[in-house]
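input
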Amino acid sequence: MYLRAEYRLGPELKFLGNLDTMHLMERALRRAGIPYALSEGFNPHIKLSMGTVLPVGLWSEKEYFDLEVLGQIEPGQFINSLNQVLPPGLQLQQCIEIEAGTPSLMKTVNTACYVFAGWEADEALLQEIWDSTTLPVPSRGKKKDVIKDLRPGLFRLELEKMERKILAWVSVGEPLNIRYDELLDLFAARGLPPTSFKDIYRCGNYIKKADCLHSPLEVITKY
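output
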C-alpha cells in the first residue's frame, strides 16, 4: 500500500534541513508503530520519499511525502498515529492512498508558491516586474557564474494588500528552478531589500499542467 501525506512545517522548525526532516519523520514512523516497508540489501531503509526540498530558513504550510506501508492502514488512522508522536510545529494535515507506480513528487511537482510578508504594498512595482519581458538575476544554484532569467518561470504574482503579502508562483525543478533568494535579489534590484520582509515562507507545492495548478493530492491520470 502506498500513501501520500501533506504536512505543515511551522516557523519553529524552519532551520531543519531536508535530511533532518526526513530523519525526524523516520523516527516518528518507528515510534508510532507504522508498518512501513523497507528496501532490500545490506543497508535497508524506510521506503519514504520526501517532496521538493524546502530551503533552510523557510517554513511551509504544505509539504508532502510518499510512503510505502505493509498491509492496509486507513489514511485517517495514519494521520492520528503519526501526529501523536511528531513534535510541535510538524503535523500531518491530509493523507490519501496512491497507486503503485505513481510518479514521484520530485518528478511531478513543478511549481511552488512563496510568500513575502510584511511589506508596505506597491502595486506599481509588482506590475513593472510582471510586465517585464526578462528578469535577469545572478543564479544562486550550482552555476553561480551565470545570469538566470526568471521571467519564463514566473507564473503568477499577486499582492494581498490587507495582509501585506506578495505571493509568487514559480517553476521548480527542471528545466528552470527558481529559488526564493533569487526572488529576493529580483526585489532588491528594484529597491526592495530583504529587510523589507518580516517573514518568508512557502505556502504550497503544485503540479502545473497547462494553465492549471493541481495539488499533489489530486488524482491526475496523465502527468
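quick obs: The radius of gyration is 19 Å.
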